[in-house]
Specification:
The structure is a homotrimer of 216-residue chains. Chain A has 216 residues and is mainly α. Chain A has eight helices and no strands. Chains A, B, C: Its main location: membrane.
């Protein structure tokens, strides 16, 4: 399988899972079927559009062909029809988000490298691609994006991006490297969620709600 | 009237109504005169800037000439001075938003087609142009964007974009087609609001507030 | 010191203070160390990325070299370790934000002029650069951006941008002009905060909370 084909496959798999995460979050927020589809599309296409805007690809790839729209829309409709029990919605969102983070991180990094971006830039753009869609989803639902939350998130994405970049540098075969990178991201992210890996919070903090009131 | 002149006219009309919707929402959120002008400007210019970024037009058209700034600023100031009674503010926002959605959808689609984008891409960019400004306005005021809410929104925009694209394909005269497209968007959107057309919500949903707490 | 060197110096100083404002706001919102670093980075790099996207610089400058990442990350970590007392956090955020607004406004305007943008466009892009990072920070923390709040903000940025543009027009020496522009922004902004300069709010407004409920 050529690297290009691989990218397309990875990207569409990412479109599906990110669309699922967006749709599940929308169902959870009690949006109607249109809102579920729109949020599924935004979550799925957001990262890739940000990537193309940063790389100067005009118009963005994901706005060019039917499949980029059909896959997320179908996924969102399926989620709307057969979403899991409410109690499991949050877990389902986090799982789909983790897989999407992995797939978009590696496809974003590989795409940036294919466009001739230096490795350092490619890793940052890959992370932005992976994190962007989910951040957009959370912003639209007025939640603090996962990337700012407790569990390891950006680091997981960084790990996958570095793997892809290393493979590119050392001319390793693209397919296993890319798959390994995506798998690493998903694994780190899920283990972090499962083991509730938390990073320290600054000490000596007053009551937040009080602080919020001042902020308003 | 040439298609180019038409685009300019439509765009400035859209700037005015979207600025009005942003200014009204800002007044409603008790922002001061500066906030009202800034939000009016952001709502008015946001969609077009997103459109130009997606099309690769640098710098964005709306950052190039005085009128693009004068029209929304004047509109916002007029709204600030003579805004309707508070009770009618929400209705006024929705009305201005619907007209802006129509005008920016068709001007965005026509602009994309004029830049040689394929019809499919042009429709998506037109919808993004129409939806973008209002979404930015709602995000900045920490509201869930209208496009994710109950009533038909994205579909109305899609209808207008398709009309413009069809007219372009069949070489119909630009002016009536564009006006018809915008009118269709506004009509669908207002009827949806008026008749409270709602799409189904997924069943078996638990209490949202409880869900929100988990999410925080 | 050449104008180019000056731009780099100003930009990195801006990166540091904006990163500090983002990190302080993140500490205040009880985010963990990862969230603090990510928000510091987003606040610091956001404005410049928006500027480069508007100018068509691909990939954005701030994604190209280590320093752009090291300076904000180090600043965020230092803030996380030695942040001031909670009671002073809000004041610290506002102070760092004001300095960052000044530095990014002038560097953004100068960069746009260096890219051949007309003065009018350069001023708008400079303001967007200065306001963008902080707006992103507030959006991610679900706060209404400072630029929409009570005290003079966009006008302070505009003043600095105009100074830089005038200096460019009249061929004044770049260094003093740019420094003066940044100082003017910071001065206006801090005086506005200190004297609580407020602009009028539209009269005849009902109770906001009631309005909010309708909006939900």
């Amino acid at each position: 399988m050529s690297a290009l084909v691989l990218l397309v496959v990875l990207e569409h798999a990412g479109l599906a899972v990110f669309a699922a995460s967006g749709a599940l979050a929308a169902v959870r927020a009690r949006l109607d079927v249109f809102g579920v589809v729109v949020l599924g599309l935004t979550t799925a296409l957001g990262g890739g559009i940000i990537r193309d805007v940063l790389l100067g690809v005009h118009p963005p790839t994901t706005l060019r062909g039917w499949p980029y729209l059909v896959v997320p829309t179908a996924t969102a409709l399926i989620v709307f029809a057969f979403h899991p029990q409410v109690a499991r919605l949050r877990r389902a969102v986090l799982l789909a988000d983790a897989i999407g983070l992995g797939l978009f991180t590696v496809s974003g990094t590989a795409t940036a490298l294919a466009h001739g971006a230096p490795g350092y830039t490619a890793c940052l753009i890959g992370m932005t691609t992976g994190i962007g869609g989910g951040a957009l989803r959370d912003l639209l639902l007025r939640e603090i994006p996962l990337v700012l939350r407790r569990e390891i998130y950006a680091l997981a994405s960084l790990a996958g991006a570095v793997i892809v970049w290393l493979g590119h540098q050392l001319h390793w075969p693209a397919v296993p490297v890319t798959v390994a990178g995506a798998a690493l991201v998903v694994a780190v992210r899920l283990i972090a969620l499962w083991r509730r890996w938390n990073a320290p919070v600054a000490r000596g903090l007053g009551d937040l709600s009080g602080g919020s009131q001042n902020r308003e």
